[in-house]
Write a structure and sequence with these properties.
- The complex is a heterodimer.
- Chain A is 42% helix and 13% strand.
- The mean pLDDT of chain A is 93.
- Chain A is an alpha/beta fold.
- Chain B is 31% helix and 17% strand.
- In chain B, strand 28 and strand 29 form a beta hairpin.
- In chain B, helix 10 (329-343) runs parallel beside helix 22, helix 10 crosses helix 28 and helix 11 (357-367) packs across helix 21.
- Residues 899-908 of chain B have low confidence and may be disordered.
- The chains are: A alpha/beta, B alpha/beta.
Chain lengths: 507, 908
């Protein structure tokens, strides 16, 4: 028998940390769930059997969530009832569109569009047909003209990314859909993968056509089993219908794709870590440059696009760049699907044009807090995003303007922190998340995150103020010295939360 | 191209495209001040330690210098207060996570093991408390390597080095976040991993977490002595640290052109033979009952008397000498001079005869010089590398690693070898031909090149001769016929030819799989035809690079240890050379060629050769047909052997002279790229053992010659005078550092990296018409297997040195490699003893089952005398070079049990 290797052990041990044992009740301790009774769920479940912690099943609007050993994700009342068996899933995802034209939520919540027949009747794949007739160069120009920005968080122009890949030298090219929606608080990608998977395929096929790839991968996190199943089925249906395969829709264009499952690592949402995971390596970030558009999967030019980003593409192809630019603001055309967590009066997904103000989103569209008390703050953009108190809400939700305020839009998740929240507990939870998910590639993040947990644990005790100064110093080092967005992004919201936790009346 | 000028700390520098900030800073002498614990110069940025952060004007946060490419106009600051504070903070985290690493001095690890501690001191973080020792090492089961986990800061330098330089991928990092830890192999035991004990990980470790038994021993003092490794013809430079008069540890010389600090398990670790109690310590005279020690004056007097008496009675040609390819140029030169000038015979040869004599002859015939045309540095420049009949990752590990790196970086590799060697993993394609069928394979490839117009017309027209005749000798059925002879599909031969021609000139790396055959010379000639067709000789990044087996086999041939040529490959008939010899030596040698090694052994058997001097060569173990060698040596009237140990050959001697070994004498070695490098004594030889060159000098004096050499430098001065064309510019004063590559005709000449540049030494490169002639021995019903002999990684040649080191724990015996199918047919299981029998003799070894050989082919190493591998090999010679055929012996095979008895029903 061949000997085990250090490499395979390294990969196994990397992913084991985020993979709950199959017999355990996996309780989500992500942000929204944490604020909605996850600790209690875990405590009660632990009394009945083994438990494990995960971060986000994508039910932040119906938190808390937990996956029972049998494999089904329970949420809301059903999760709160654990370990008693309950009838799952009575609550529905609420999807609304405030934009003048719906771009990404067109087919959400309006019937079973995961089925190919329904999808085609709703117009999916018409854009692919158009794109095939158009050809690669015109597609690239169209995407560049549209001004679409990536929706994953970095906000890089999609057209420029495609162009870089299309013009890079390599034996072959890859296109990858990043379905590793790890930010607790965001769930639009899960919704799209489950309810509109053909739109994802269509967007990815258009991308492949534009850059000259014949192989695509949809990387979906392990916490989204339903999304994986729906996407796999959609791929099979598309292949059988000749939409994927050696001659896409009868054209001289070969393209096929497959689903690759994540293994429980938040950092794999970062594109280079995701590529490593696809290659069967540890989900650690790679030093950039080179960027994936030049040196990506297996060293080949690769486009990695977020799911929502890809779903925008068929709309742009169908309606044109000008129509797209009419939505949103000049610096950020189009719409964004905002995910509203359970602490709001009206949780769910709200598609709005870029530029809508945060205050309007929170107070009007989300309906303010669920409990009627004034919110302490909202968390925008997940754990690497921003903690914003009501005084900071008068900002337009669009990347450039937010950046000027030092705010990151992230993937557009909004989680309210209610007046009743136990802030020190939330802070510790957040710090633990960082320590658990730090990939270990760079020293400041790997070692600093553990020190953050230790310090945060002492903040509630006597001398908390002094600890806060130490924490501030430590987080500043981690932010300045870390290799990737994870270590660079977590310190600020953590510090803000720590300051809030120690606010008037604190240690 | 835009001018890549940038500013670092107020000073302007110009960068190369693609360079990183750290690389520029290092190149401009600013590197040392930018701290890093993860970066290794020349390797891709790891980017993990974050200590090399710098700030760039106009950018928000600091960036890592190691991974930031230079852009024109950058204004970079490397030492602002903020950056220094950041570095201190990150170092502080490392220290808090690994307190033991901070307490250690780091002086019991590799050359960089003090780096972490030094940084802590620089940033005021070092613990002033007494330095403590680390917790005991884990993985203490390996003969050399040790790992102390509490010192490991998971910087991943070892991972990088092992992946990128050595190519073994022993290490990886497990876990995530703060819980990351170093993993190696299956279970943190080096012997359960692909580790080849190169020790490179020890060299790059910044804390001493990875170290070895040598470095853990206290006591290394003073400066290390730079010399040259004696374990193969690569010629790696080593720094030998000494404690109490003995070798303490060996490191690769970082600045050496040949190996840039890299070594293999033999070069780095196999030095315990110097201290072996079995070393010969005084001259020994054979008596009726055994050997008795005698004094040096007695021994020298006796040797001179015996040689003189034989010459007086039977003439000078009744005497002969074999110089040692392990000893120095100076020793070889003086010994051949002793026999030519003082005794008066050309019966002078060395073990080049039994390895690359075919290569040297063929290269001389086709190009005018019998040595490598290219240099090792061409490996990195080559776009296409052909490895034929060589297994460099095993026999020349440092070059093997360089070839693998080059191929990983994109060079095309074609391997032609009956064994699926490690490099075959990267080959496009690997032609797994039947042993001894090179000529057919190369001709088939040549035919494809000619037929499909894939040859370099301009080069052939300008620089070659004999093409028309050669092309006419090929026909369109060449590939089909060769396919049957070589046992590979015709299409594979065509693919190999097209692959060879795809990217212009190629570098041809060859080994004894071409040379040690009845058609050895023809094999090399056929390969040279391919090199000429592709325009590969005399251009950078291409050419011929035969890998030399012994450390100074190149030098021995250079010095004139060959019966037909004198120092510097000068013809014995050349009047100019004869005049020079008369002037320098006082007399010229006979103009007729003397006997080769096989010729001398045959003459000894017939009684015409009566006296033989063997310097450091174990003919009994390494030469073919052991029984015939024994018959020759036992018939001699006088056999004198200079040796380190009582070898099988020394046992037959009348006089045994104790020799100084490679780490114990001064002189020069010449490596396989014609590089003459200084060899220095790091330790004293044991007892009365003496440097080889002094013994030749003293015997010459005893025979009445007025030889006054005070030191080896004086010998080199004479060599330069005797062969000015190749060596005229060689002086010890010029051989510091990386030495010189010959030809180096005068004191101002910088040496020659590429031979035949612009013009072949013989004028034009010559195509040769050669045809496959069938093999020396064929498979028959009685002898159904073809045996190849060769080297394993952990031992060197007859193993007299490496077997006396802990390398014996890495490989404790010779192994017979058998295809599982053949093993099943013979009832052999893995690890069982097998008896191998040929028409000439018997051998036995433990079997290793592997499909790296094809069914019907076996491989056996010859490092252990008890194996008697060369009892099997025949007396067949290449008729042109007289090189023996070690690579094709028809044998049969059967299982025996561990006691050496036949396996049978009664065996338990």
């Amino acid at each position: 028998m061949p000997q085990d290797t250090a490499q395979s052990r390294a990969v196994r041990s990397f992913f084991a940390a985020g993979t709950p044992p199959p017999d355990a009740t996996a309780v989500c301790r992500g942000l929204s769930c944490e604020l909605n009774g996850a600790a209690g769920v875990e405590r009660r479940a632990a009394a009945a059997g083994p438990t494990a912690r995960v971060h986000c099943f994508g039910y932040c609007d119906r938190a808390p969530a937990a996956r029972v050993a049998a494999g089904e994700v329970l949420y809301g009342a059903a999760a709160l009832a654990l370990p008693r068996p309950a009838i799952p899933g009575a609550e529905r995802l609420d999807v609304r569109c405030l934009a003048r034209r719906a771009v990404v939520t067109e087919r959400l919540g309006a019937g079973a569009h995961h089925d190919l027949g329904a999808a085609r009747r709703a117009g999916v794949y018409a854009a692919l047909e158009a794109g095939l007739a158009m050809g690669a160069e015109r597609l690239l120009s169209l995407l560049e003209d549209s001004g679409e920005l990536g929706r994953g968080g970095a906000g890089y122009p999609t057209g420029a990314k495609w162009r870089a890949c299309a013009t890079a030298v390599g034996p072959r090219r890859y296109v990858v859909a990043n379905g590793d929606e790890g930010d607790p608080g965001a769930f639009i990608d899960r919704a799209l993968l489950e309810e509109d998977p053909h739109a994802v395929i269509e967007g990815l096929a258009l991308c492949a056509l534009a850059v000259g790839a014949s192989e695509g991968i949809v990387f979906i996190r392990a916490e989204y089993p339903q999304a994986q199943a729906r996407m796999a089925l959609a791929i099979t249906q598309a292949r059988e219908a000749g939409i994927l395969g050696p001659a896409v829709l009868g054209y001289r264009f070969a393209f096929d794709l497959r689903v690759v499952s994540g293994h429980g690592s938040y950092v794999c949402g970062e594109e280079t870590a995701l590529l490593n995971a696809i290659e069967g390596d540890r989900g650690e970030v790679r030093v950039r440059p080179p960027y994936p558009a030049r040196t990506g999967l297996y060293g080949c030019p690769t486009v990695v696009n977020n799911i929502e980003t890809l779903v925008n593409v068929p709309w742009i192809v169908r309606e044109g760049a000008a129509a797209y630019r009419r939505l949103g603001v000049a610096a950020a055309p189009g719409t964004k699907a905002f995910c509203l967590g359970r602490g709001f009066a009206r949780p769910g997904i709200v598609e709005a044009e870029f530029g809508v103000s945060l205050r309007e989103m929170v107070e009007q569209h989300a309906g303010g807090s669920r409990d009627g008390q004034p919110l302490r703050a909202v968390v925008l953009g997940g754990p690497m995003g921003s903690v914003l108190t009501p005084a900071e809400w008068d900002v337009p939700l669009e990347p450039a303007a937010l950046r000027r305020h030092g705010i990151r839009l992230g993937h557009g998740g909004l989680v309210p922190i209610p007046a009743s929240a136990d802030l020190p507990a939330l802070l510790l939870n957040w710090a633990q998340f960082m320590a658990l998910e730090s990939c270990g590639k760079c020293a400041p993040c790997a070692l600093g995150s553990r020190e953050v947990v230790d310090l945060v644990g002492q903040i509630g005790s006597a001398g908390g103020r002094r600890r806060l100064v130490e924490l501030q110093q430590l987080l500043a080092t981690v932010e300045a010295a870390s290799l990737c967005g994870f270590g660079q992004g977590l310190p600020r919201p953590l510090l803000k939360l720590a300051t809030l936790a120690l606010g008037p009346g604190g240690g | 191209m835009a001018d890549l000028t940038l500013q670092i700390d107020g000073e302007r520098f110009t960068a190369e495209p693609g360079e990183t900030l750290l690389a520029v800073a290092r190149r401009c002498g600013r590197g040392a001040s930018i701290p890093t614990l993860c970066n290794l110069p020349g390797l891709p940025a790891e980017g993990g330690c974050r200590l090399c952060v710098v700030s760039i004007e106009g950018e928000a946060g600091p960036v890592a210098a190691c991974s930031t490419p230079v852009r024109a106009g950058m204004v970079v600051a490397t030492h602002t207060a903020a950056l220094e504070a950041l570095r201190r903070d990150v170092l502080g985290m490392m220290l808090r996570a690994h307190p033991a690493a901070g307490r250690l001095a780091g002086d019991d690890g590799g050359r960089q093991s003090g780096e972490f501690r030094a940084l802590l001191e620089r940033y005021g973080l070092a613990d002033p408390a007494p330095r403590q020792s680390a917790a005991p090492a884990v993985s203490a089961t390996h003969p050399y390597l040790r790992f102390r986990p509490d010192l490991c800061i998971t910087c991943r330098r070892c991972v990088q080095f092992c992946d990128e330089v050595q190519g073994q991928s022993v290490f990886a990092v497990g876990g995530r976040g703060a819980a990351v830890r170093l993993l190696f192999g299956a279970d943190e035991r080096f012997e359960h991993s692909p580790c080849v004990s190169c020790g490179g990980c020890v060299d790059v470790c910044p804390t001493g977490a990875l170290t070895d038994v040598d470095r853990l021993r206290p006591g290394a003092t003073g400066t290390a002595v730079r010399t040259v490794c004696a374990y193969c013809g690569v010629g790696c430079n080593i720094d030998v640290a000494v404690a109490e008069g003995a070798v303490h540890h060996v490191s690769g010389t970082l600045e050496a052109a040949v190996n840039r600090g890299h070594l293999c398990a033999k070069g780095r670790y196999a030095h315990a033979w110097t201290r072996s109690p079995e070393r010969l310590k005084s001259p020994l005279l054979r008596t009726t009952t055994g050997f008795r020690p005698v004094s040096w004056p007695q021994a020298l007097e006796l040797a001179a008397r015996e040689l003189g008496d034989i010459r007086a009675a039977h003439g000078p040609d009744a005497l002969g000498v074999m110089t040692s390819s392990r000893s120095t140029n100076e020793a070889a030169y003086l010994l051949q001079k002793l026999f030519r000038a003082v005794i008066g015979t050309n019966n002078v040869d060395c073990c080049a005869r039994v390895c690359h004599s075919s290569t040297a002859l063929a290269l001389t015939m086709a190009t005018g010089t019998g040595a490598a045309s290219a240099s090792y540095a061409d490996i990195e420049r080559a776009r296409t590398i052909v490895v034929a009949g060589a297994n460099p990752t095993v026999a020349h590990p440092v070059l093997g690693a360089r070839i693998r790196q080059a191929v990983r970086r994109g060079a095309r590799l074609i391997v032609i070898d009956p064994r699926r060697t490690e490099l075959c993993e990267h080959a496009r394609p690997h032609l797994q031909i039947e042993p001894g069928t090179n000529v057919a394979a190369f001709n088939a490839m040549a035919a494809v090149l000619v037929e499909e117009g894939l040859w370099n017309r301009a080069y052939v027209a300008e620089r070659c001769e004999g093409f028309e005749e050669f092309a006419a000798s090929l026909d369109e059925r060449e590939a089909v016929v060769a396919a049957a002879v070589c046992g590979v599909p015709a299409e594979a031969l065509r693919e190999a030819a097209r692959s060879l021609a795809a990217a212009g000139p190629a570098l041809f790396v060859t080994g004894l799989g071409l040379s040690e055959l009845v058609q050895g010379t023809d094999s090399v000639l056929a390969l040279v035809n391919l090199a000429l067709l592709t325009g590969s000789i005399g251009v950078p990044g291409a050419g011929l690079l035969p890998l030399r087996g012994q450390n100074n086999v190149q030098g021995n041939a250079d010095m004139g240890a060959a019966p037909g040529t004198v120092t510097g490959y000068q013809s014995l008939a050349d009047p100019e050379a004869r005049e020079r010899l008369r002037r320098v030596w006082g007399s010229a040698p006979p103009s007729a060629a003397g006997l080769t090694i096989p010729g001398m052994l045959a003459a000894a058997r017939s009684g015409t050769l009566q006296g033989l001097w063997v310097q450091g060569e174990d003919l009994m173990q390494s030469d073919p047909n052991e029984a015939q060698v024994r018959a020759a040596l036992t018939r001699l009237r006088f056999l004198v052997v200079q040796e380190l140990f009582m070898t099988e050959t020394a046992r037959l001697a009348h006089l045994v002279l104790p020799a100084a070994g490679a780490l114990e004498q001064e002189g020069t070695f010449t490596n396989g790229e014609r590089r003459v490098q200084r060899v220095r004594a790091a330790v004293r030889p044991p007892g009365e053992a003496r440097p080889d060159w002094t013994v030749a000098r003293d015997v010459a004096r005893a025979l009445g010659a007025d030889w006054r050499y005070e030191d080896p430098a004086a010998v080199m001065d004479e060599i330069a005078g005797v062969a000015p064309g190749l060596f005229g510019g060689l002086r010890y004063s010029r051989l510091e550092g990386d030495g010189l590559q010959w030809p180096c005709p005068d004191g101002a000449h910088p040496g020659t990296a590429t031979l035949h540049a612009g013009r072949f030494q013989r004028g034009r490169g010559r195509f040769s018409v050669v045809r496959h002639q069938g093999r020396s021995e064929a498979r028959t019903a009685t002898w159904p297997y073809i045996l190849i002999t060769g080297r394993d990684l952990q031992h060197y040649n007859v193993g007299s040195m490496t077997r006396r080191t802990p390398n014996i724990d890495l490989a404790g015996g010779d192994q017979l490699v058998v295809h599982p199918q053949d093993a099943a047919a013979c009832g052999l299981r893995a690890g069982e003893w097998a008896e191998i029998e040929s028409r000439h003799g018997r051998a036995r070894a433990r079997t290793r089952l592997s499909d790296e050989v094809r069914p019907g082919t076996l491989f056996l190493s010859f490092h252990f005398p008890e194996t008697h591998a060369n009892a099997l090999t025949g007396g067949q010679l290449d008729p042109q070079s007289q090189c023996p055929d070690y690579k094709v012996t028809a044998v049969r095979l059967r299982a025996i049990n561990a006691g050496g008895h036949e396996a049978g029903e009664g065996a338990s």
